[in-house]
Amino acid sequence: MSLKIDRELKEELKETYLWRYMSLDKFIDLIKTQSIYFATNTQLITGDPYEGALFFFTNVLFCLDSDYQNKKVEYNNLAKPLVQWLEDTKTLNISSKISNIRNNTFINCWHINEDENYLMWQSYAHKKGDIAIVSDIESLIEAIETDIDIEAIKVNYSSKDFNKEMSSITNINYGRDNDLKNLIKISSKYKKEPFKNENELRLIFQLDNNNNFNQKIKVNLDKLIKYIYVSPSSSNTEKQTIINLLKPLIQQNKINSNIINEVYTSLISNTYITEINEFNTDIAIAGKFGIEKTDNEDEQKRLLYMIFSLIFDQDTPPHKRERERRKIEALTKNQLSHKQ
Q1: pLDDT, tens digit (0-9, with 9 covering 90-100), for 279-320
Q2: For residue 218, what are the β-bridge partners?
Q3: How far apart are CA 151 and CA 186, in angstroms?
Q4: DSSP conformation class of 213
Q5: Is the pLDDT of residue 73 over 90?
Q6: What is the pTM (predicted TM-score) of this model?
Q7: What residue spans of 256-317 are helical by DSSP H?
Q8: 48 in helix, strand or coil?
Q9: Calculated CA dihedral for residues 230, 231, 232, 235, nearest 10 degrees
Q10: Fewer CB atoms < 10 Å away: N or C end of the chain?
Q11: Strand-strand pairing, 227-230 and 216-218
């Protein structure tokens, strides 16, 4: 198995969904290459300046590389053991090694949530035609096709926990690359508190050299994509565009034809409200006609129940309806078995 995940975390994620919000361009790249993109630890700085920051190395050692010689007189005023340590670390070229390791640490991010998230739309997919892919942990594990060992971790949004874990690490050999790689990996598991609404699951791995790696990992799209939502700013035109992009994959048997029925407009869009109002009106008219055509009281009750069920069903997001129906079916079967 190429994706490794802690047993407790896997159990925690079993009853929820994983979302990846993306631009239309990124979605097109996903379906054309049938690969998911892994950004380097360094690239993620554009969204979070603290990304992968090791407080001590960032504030001290990175500066040493550029101007240690110029500040040597000032450093001489420090305690001699500290001056000696600074000179030793300069000789080891630690900050340069860390920069290289960050460029060889690859991360792919998913949002953990039962439902779509307005803030995630605004941050990562706010334009017309942008989309969100909905998957789950089992589908993600089955979809990834690589020999690279990838680890799935849940991000911790606590500076206090980060500092505590970093300070607990002892016996670090700063001249050993594996020790430095471990520090970078640990830092990739944490983000600052302002980002906690991202509720992020990260897929992460490290390479010794990325010269021949194009930052993409092959995936089985049929297993990866369970549902697709089109951004709140989109109309049915953009929704149809997404469907049209999927059709060639269906013809090539790269993805199941049912996926076309799993492309939805965002539940927080005006387009969705319009669709639901039209649907509910049609259902009400059909129900009224059906009730008027029968004098059977039981049949009338059945039709009313069906009408209300269909209307109330609209409050359940499409990606959750299948799960809810399975629960109802299981409950019904359980009750029937007790009666027997």
Answers
A1: 777 777 777 777 777 777 777 677 776 766 666 666 778 888
A2: 35
A3: 12
A4: -
A5: no
A6: 0.80
A7: 270-292, 297-312
A8: coil
A9: -50
A10: C
A11: unpaired
Q: Which of 203, 215, 229, 219 is nearest to 19 (CA)?
A: 229
DSSP state letters, 263-274: EEE-TTSHHHHH
Measured distance CA(280)–CA(49) in Å, rounded: 47
Phi, psi of 4 (to 5 degrees): -100, 140
- Do 50 and 191 contact (CB within 8 A), yes or no? yes
- What is the Cα gyration radius of the chain? 26
Cα 142 to Cα 112, 139, 157, 211, 221: the distances in Å are 18, 5, 28, 27, 10
- Both structure tokens of 141: 């594990």
In 3D, which of 56, 105, 100, 107 has the Cα closest to residue 82?
56
Distance (Å, rounded) from C-alpha 119 to C-alpha 198?
Answer: 8
How far, in Å, CA of 260 to CA of 250, rounded? 9
Q: Which two tokens stand for residue 68?
A: 């240690």
Asked whether the beta carbons of 143 and 198 are under 8 A apart, the reply is no
Structure tokens at 203: 């897929």
pLDDT digits (tens, 9 = 90+) for 43-54: 988 778 777 766
Rounded Cα distance, 46 and 58, in Å: 16
Tell me what pLDDT residue 74 has: 56
**In this predicted model, which residue has the larger pLDDT, 51 or 240?**
240
Q: Three-state DSSP class for 151? A: strand
The tokens of 239 are what?
Answer: 């929704």
Structure tokens at 111: 């949002």
How many angstroms separate the CA atoms of 130 and 234, rounded? 8
pLDDT tens track for 162-221: 888 887 877 777 778 888 898 889 989 999 899 999 999 999 999 987 667 889 999 999
Pairing of strands 105-113, 200-206: antiparallel
